[in-house]
Write a structure and sequence with these properties.
The chain has about 450 residues and is an alpha/beta fold. About 25% of the residues lie in helices and about 25% in strands. α8 packs across α9. The chain binds thymidine-5'-diphosphate and magnesium ion (MG).
Length: about 450
Amino acid sequence: MAKKKTVYVCQSCGYKSPTWSGKCPECGEWGTFVEEVISKPTNKVSFSWINASSEKPTPITEISETEKERYLSRIEEFDRVAGGGVVKGSVSLLSGEPGIGKSTFLLQLSEKLSNYGKVLYVSAEESPQQISMRARRLEISTPNILVLANNNLEEIKKSIEKEKPTFLVIDSIQTIYLPHIESAAGSVSQVREGTAFITNLSKSKGITTFIVGHVNKEGSIAGPKVLEHIVDAVYQFEGDRGHNFRILKALKNRFGSTGEIAVFQMEEKGLKEVKNPSLFFLSERPVGKPGSVIYCSIEGTRPLLLEVQALVSRAVFSTPQRRAKGIDANRLSIIIAVLEKELGYPLRNFDVFVNIIGGVKIKEPAVDFPVALAIASSYLGKPVKKDIAVFGEIGLSGEIRSVRLEEMRIKEIEKNGFQAFSLQNKNNKLKLLKEAVKLAIEEQQNGGSYRKPVKP
Ligand code: TYD
Ligand code: MG
């Protein structure tokens, strides 16, 4: 028998190498190489709007605009994130950490979508009994959701051909396998080929499909990036498992904008939409305590008030600790450096911890000033002025820069009964960080109960 040809594949980025190595030269991850048998990719992904036989291009002005048909799930928050409902025949990936609520969400979504047609829920992780238990907990009782517990894609295909569902849920891509590919379920080859297989099948039959994908420890979808290119939309579930808020984000959407978020609350009977997340995120805020700042972020087109907390405490070890949850650690280092230089705080002698409450991950630079203010407030042991909310990017020379959609932020801040902290001074110039921190932090009153500023 001819020897099988194998290749070593990085399970983090999909890089291929003929030899094993400890560190992936592409993504720098350690211990991610797994030997896989080389198999010819059997599936070419085809999109319904791509015509392989056409060679003649069309002038852009002559292409007629077709409105995509959409299913409204009536879970309003989700419909908005999806760009006005799920597009008929589209394939979406729903990613998130284990236990965050992906299966719960998709079962609730299945119930809503089952009004339009049959849903085939393929579970390769849980038994039909477990799914039925969850359905009872969610008070779902429609015969229009069919459950199939199977992880062999060839058999799943047969079932799809027989049942002809309108909607398909695959839970999850990491646990199903194609029998002709020899590597284990969850490997890069299986995940990639499996997604291509499902996408092909769904596109050829016009089935609207949702695929669950687990994320690895860095928060990206396990498997190569190519997975994200195959599907039409990628949604991500985020949140703190210690808290009950869950945030659904569109990371990619061929039929809508990305960056939109939906906020849910995990309750006894499943996920509930949160209509005013700003109030919700601030509900447990400690009032009048140093280190707590209200920040107005913009996620997609939605302004959201969040609490930023910082704790500055004397360093225990010679290298001070810097920990950031919800913001980029590099960004935190820059902010700390600017605070040291411009305000003269000896932060090299202090540990600094920053947290965005509620498990929200912030990518926009407008979080800089709120973070700097929270650190300053904790360092000085003085609270930030009551009821102000802030935003603003910090430049390396200590200036605060304006950010996008300021008007919208100010409106949201005022709507919730707070006051927007102006980034401009009397001369209509942007404030410097030094000036802004001084103005935003409560003046110490005589005999005030605030603790003394910490000295190194
Ligand atoms: P699940 O949907 O199984 O997560 P995933 O598919 O992403 O792994 O959700 C798991 C958690 O949600 C579990 O800890 C229990 C909790 N939960 C509720 O709090 N309320 C509910 O109604 C349901 C169904 C689950
Ligand atoms: Mg699950």
